Amino acid sequence: MVLMTKPQIRKDYFKDTYVIIAPNRARRPLEVKPAATELTTVCHFCPHDFHNETITYQDNNPEGDWEVVSVINKFAALTPDNHSAYGQTEVIIETRRHGMDINDFSTDHIVRVFDAYIDRFMTLRNMDGIKHVIIFKNEGGKAGASITHTHSQVYAMPILPSKTEDEARAYSKYRLEHMTCPYCDIIIAEAEKSRVIWQDENLFVLAPYASDAPYGAWLIPKRHIRLISELTHGEKESFATALKILLGTLDRFGIAYNYFVENAVNNEDYHMHIKLAPRPNIWAGLELGTGVIINPIAPEFAARIYRGQVKIHTDPRF
Ligand SMILES: [Zn+2]
Ligand SMILES: [Zn+2]
Question: What is the pTM assigned to this prediction?
Answer without folding.
Answer: 0.92
